[in-house]
Each structure stands twice: as C-alpha cells, then as structure tokens.
Design a protein that fits this description.
261 residues; three-stranded mixed sheet; 14% strand; transmembrane helix; receptor; alpha/beta; single chain; 12 strands; 4 helices; seven-stranded mixed sheet; binds 2-acetamido-2-deoxy-beta-D-glucopyranose
C-alpha cells in the first residue's frame, strides 16, 4: 500500500512539474534576440522575383516571404521556417529559402549567434557580400544551403561582383568546426579564391559528407581526385565551373557517386 501511495505521488509530481516542460517549447531568449536583429538587417524585395534565376523552379509557385509571419509577441519556435529543440528552446533549424530577402551579410551578422543550428537554408534569396568568418561558430551544422544568392542582380548580366563570396580562411574554419556536416550547397557563391589545397580540406569530412553541391562557384585548378572517393559521398555537383579540371575515376558504372560534373 505504501508503495502504491509513493507511486501515485510520483505520477502526480511528474504530471505537475515535468509534463509542462515537454509541451511548451519557448524560444530561447538569446536565440530570439539574434533572430530579431537578423530580421532587422535585411528587407523583403518582391519586385525582382520574376527576373530571377532558372533555379527558382526549386521554390513553391506561391512563393512568399516566411518572415511576414514573424511576430515579436509569439513564440519564435512557431515562426515559419524556425525549428527549435523541444527541450531547450534553442533554434536548431532555419529555413528561409525562397523568401525574397535582400541585404548584405555584415561581419557582425547575428545569424551566426545561433550556435545550436543544425540546418540552415537561405537558398534563392537576394543576399550578397562576403560570408563572415563567424559562420564557423555554427559547429553543430549538419546541412548548409546558401546557394544562388546574387543580391537581386541577374547573374547572367554584366554586373558582376554581387554574388556572395567565400574566402579560403572562412572555408577552413567552417570545415574545422562544423566537422559533422553532411550537406554543403553553395551553388553560385564566388569561391574563386579556393584552390586545390583548400578543397582538399573536404577530406577531413570523410566520415560525414554525403552531398556536395558547388555549381557555378568559379572554382579553378585541379579537383583533388580523392574527393570522389569519400566513403559516404552520394551526390556531387560541380557543373558550370569552366576552369576546374579533374579526372573522373575509370568508372565501370558501379560508382555510388551520382551527380552532374
Ligand atoms: C533548401 O530549400 C530549397 C527550397 O525549398 C530546397 O529545394 C533545397 O533542397 C533545400 N536544401 C537543402 C540542403 O535541404
Ligand atoms: C503554398 O501552397 C501550398 C500548397 O498549396 C500551401 O500548403 C502553402 O500554405 C502555401 N503557402 C503560402 C505562403 O501561401
Ligand atoms: C521582420 O522583418 C519584416 C520585414 O522587414 C518586418 O515586416 C517584420 O515586422 C519583422 N518582424 C519582427 C518580429 O521584427
Ligand atoms: C553591423 O554593421 C553595419 C555596418 O558596419 C551596421 O550598419 C549595422 O547596424 C551593424 N549591425 C549590428 C546588428 O550591429
Ligand atoms: C568553433 O565553434 C565554437 C562553438 O560555437 C566557438 O566557440 C569557436 O569560436 C568556433 N571556432 C572557430 C574557429 O570559429
Ligand atoms: C530590389 O532590388 C533591386 C535590385 O537590386 C533594386 O534595384 C531595388 O531598388 C530593390 N527594391 C526595393 C524595394 O528594395
Ligand atoms: C569573385 O571574387 C574575386 C575576388 O575574390 C573577384 O576578383 C571576382 O571578380 C569575383 N567574380 C565574380 C563573378 O563576381
Ligand atoms: C584536418 O585534419 C588534420 C589531421 O587530422 C588536422 O590537423 C587539421 O587541423 C584538420 N583541418 C581542418 C580544417 O579541419
Ligand atoms: C592555396 O590557398 C591557401 C589558402 O589561401 C594558401 O595558403 C596556399 O598557398 C595556396 N596554394 C597554392 C598552391 O596556391
Ligand atoms: C568495378 O568497380 C568495382 C569497385 O570499384 C570493382 O570491385 C570491380 O572489379 C570493377 N569491375 C570491373 C568489371 O572492372
């Protein structure tokens, strides 16, 4: 009987004190302020969608900016595009793909204060500028997609230099810190200063890397062929890099790597 009472008490206290923390996932205050400052650092530009890049077919046809649903007075974990850890309330996923966001990535960008992020997708917006080295603070990243941001300039026009840019030291820090990353999508980002030895750093990700997509990045020189043999690599896209040279493995169609080279 005594045990029964103890059991009842335990169940009672579990329901009272523990259950609520599972049902509420309130946004972590630090992450909330980083999101708000990030939101204030760019604008929504819906005047240029129609002139946009062919890759836009990846976006829904009724494209609209997810941030219009962002409201200071609601839990940020419920904002469109935001995913939180249900226990800690830390933001672990941010998908603002196809959201018509325009602005420069400043060195002080608060986006990279979200150090619990595992998934970040900003593809097909109109961001521009150098990718700040603080992106390497995102040490828990599993999936990164920054592809096809040209600031709103037609990428086929003569006005060059608006694409986002990634320099070798930022690349190195990112690979060093985000060592569990599985998906890297950086199509259209200016990576022309990343040389063969910088690309070889990808070999450090041999146990994690599954997808690598770097089309139209201005890569030049030789592709380190050992990248093609990374044990978990399943998707590799390197199209549109006219100055990149490399030797495909003497494949007999049993290669597990698919993609366009
Ligand atoms: C990013 O979002 C786009 C559009 O929703 C989607 O096509 C793409 O697969 C996403 N990238 C990753 C790495 O999941
Ligand atoms: C876009 O269309 C899809 C499917 O019809 C719908 O689920 C989604 O809510 C729509 N999004 C917006 C922003 O209207
Ligand atoms: C986020 O930015 C948009 C566009 O600039 C603005 O309309 C909205 O009020 C902002 N939301 C918050 C919560 O600051
Ligand atoms: C970041 O720096 C830019 C220019 O240096 C400035 O305009 C902006 O207000 C700063 N943003 C924050 C969040 O400090
Ligand atoms: C690596 O990530 C940790 C945790 O976010 C951070 O404290 C550290 O500064 C990062 N290192 C580099 C080189 O960015
Ligand atoms: C939208 O982007 C285009 C191209 O960068 C620019 O010319 C235009 O002024 C922007 N419009 C708004 C409302 O910011
Ligand atoms: C890419 O960046 C380099 C500097 O790193 C610059 O010289 C070049 O013009 C840029 N290319 C494009 C297409 O913007
Ligand atoms: C790559 O791996 C080597 C050997 O384990 C290590 O010394 C180096 O710091 C790593 N570099 C990066 C960028 O992760
Ligand atoms: C490749 O780039 C790295 C980093 O910028 C630099 O240290 C190295 O000297 C370059 N190697 C060659 C062969 O240009
Ligand atoms: C095809 O490639 C696999 C693995 O690379 C190898 O084991 C096999 O012997 C090859 N077959 C032929 C016919 O070359």
């Amino acid at each position: 009987m005594g045990w029964f009472v103890v059991l009842l008490y335990l169940i009672h206290s579990l329901l009272l004190f523990h259950f609520p923390s599972y049902t509420f996932s309130l946004c972590n205050p630090h992450d909330l302020s980083a999101l708000l400052l990030f939101n204030n650092s760019f604008t929504v530009n819906n005047t240029i969608v129609d002139h946009y890049h062919p890759w836009y077919y990846h976006c829904p046809t009724n494209v609209s900016s997810k941030i219009v649903s962002w409201n200071k007075n609601t839990d940020c974990c419920k904002w469109d595009g935001v995913t939180c850890d249900t226990m800690s309330g830390h933001v672990i996923g941010l998908d603002l793909s196809c959201s018509m966001l325009q602005g420069q990535f400043h060195p002080n960008i608060t986006l990279f204060h979200l150090t619990h992020l595992q998934q970040l997708n900003l593809t097909l917006n109109f961001f521009y500028g150098d990718i700040p080295s603080s992106i390497s603070h995102l040490s828990k990243l599993i999936s990164l997609d920054l592809s096809f941001n040209y600031g709103g300039i037609d990428p086929y026009s003569d006005e060059l230099g608006m694409a986002m840019r990634l320099d070798p030291s930022t690349w190195k820090k990112l690979i060093f810190n985000a060592s569990d990353i599985r998906e890297i999508f950086l199509g259209g980002i200016n990576m022309s200063s990343i040389n063969e030895s910088s690309l070889s750093l990808l070999l450090n990700l041999s146990s994690s890397l599954v997808s690598l997509s770097l089309p139209g990045t201005g890569l030049q020189g030789n592709l380190p062929s050992r990248i093609l043999y990374l044990p978990n690599l399943q998707q590799l896209t390197l199209s549109g890099n006219v100055n990149l040279r490399g030797q495909l493995p003497k494949s007999n169609c049993s290669s597990k790597v698919f993609g366009s080279l």
